[in-house]
Amino acid sequence: MAQISPRLARTYFAEISAASALPLDPDDLVRMVRLRQHGHVVIGDIAIRCYKHKSKWTYDERDIRRAAQAFADLRLDLDDVVEVQLPPYRDRDEEDLEERGRADWRESIASWMFWSARHKHRLERPADEWSDDSWQRIGPGGLPGELTWEEFTAAYSGRRQNIASTRPLELMTRSDGILFLPRAYVELLDRWEQVTEDLVARARICSRCRAQGPRWGAWRTPSPLGYVTLCPPCAGATFQRYTGHLRGVLYESARTRSTRADGYLCRLCSESRAAVWDHCHDHGLVRGPLCGSCNTYEGKSTAHSFLQNKEGAALHLLECRVCMERRTLPARYHAALARMHVEATERHIVRTRRCRHVPWIEDVELAHGAYRFELSCWWHKATWTKDVTVAETATLVRTFVDQALAAEQAGTVVPAPRRPASDTRV
């Protein structure tokens, strides 16, 4: 089996399928967006397996060539079309978690249209009329709200809107308010839905106890040969729990290099096999083993998102001995805590009373011994700045750390500062 890199796979696939009647998007072979969920890239109705070889993800060259040739040979009658009926608007927050992320090409196209209709709705109206939900209703032209077909196609011109690694908008036509796609293409997208759902169904089953896990891949854990599915009890029984034996040890030390992180359970989510030793970048000390997902979240998400949304985030950061002894957090979290303090307390004045809307914070900079935040209120078209001094921020950080440690000692969940809910009253 000849193993090739994702970039080479994309090159081979693009060359072989260049004459295909379908508008294909082989970039998915590099992005691998569903890798954790089911370990494949699905192009059309063909699932191409991803392999892990020497810690890098690869493809079997034969799989790539066979799939590309199948699309090169595909025949598509552009005159044989069928009507496409799109589903009504659905609020994502009200969607069942089991349904969220399900392969549904009609829902995907509808979401693009509803997004465009909402964007137009807000551009053409003052903010106090944004609550009007007329943009959610399909109009006589077959599109939501006041959106026109020309506006929709112009908005997505040049964008690579992708379903099943194909671009449906390039094949879509419209007549008398009705949308059409080639019959063979609709049948292919229907098969894509089934292929994807079959892959997800198999990948969500615990490889040990056969329990069924969440469809979005929360039980999937990395291994030397790829992802495996283990429920939290089975993962806990398989991997060691970290007990802090490297606390105070330098990340670059020989002791850390000689201890494999993947023998431990992730200390943050306690559900997946660890992949790396996380460490404090300010002081260079080990914090503990993390799975790839939690490590990426801590390193690449915004600091305030990590503190607000990840349970146990504060205590994990305090695994750095220097941070613990000084009752502080790494520098990038100082601005985050100052920002959350501003979100919770800062309001502008409207007719002698405080506005009840949470302000939008555009930017922050550290200058002249203070964090300066630029705030705005869309409802009242107000903009202003707010400074939080370094000394004030240090107090906020220490208070937050003390609360986290007190919560741990009391055996309660560490309180995470959260963005306050907006109130529509003034």
Structural class: alpha+beta
Find the count of extended strands (DSSP E, 2+ residues). 17
- What proportion strand? 15-25%
Spatial arrangement of strands, main beta sheet: 1-5-4
Distance between the termini: 67 Å
pLDDT < 50 runs, ≥5 residues:
419-426
Mean pLDDT, all residues: 89
Integer count of domains? 4
Q: What is the element layout, followed by pairings?
A:
Elements: E1 3-4, H1 6-16, H2 28-31, H3 35-38, E2 40-43, E3 46-49, E4 51-53, E5 56-60, H4 61-72, E6 81-84, H5 105-123, H6 149-155, E7 173-175, E8 178-182, H7 183-203, E9 220-223, E10 226-229, H8 232-238, H9 254-257, E11 276-279, E12 286-290, H10 292-300, H11 303-309, H12 313-317, H13 321-326, H14 331-345, E13 349-350, E14 353-354, E15 360-367, E16 370-377, E17 382-389, H15 390-410
Helix pairs in contact: 1-4, 14-15
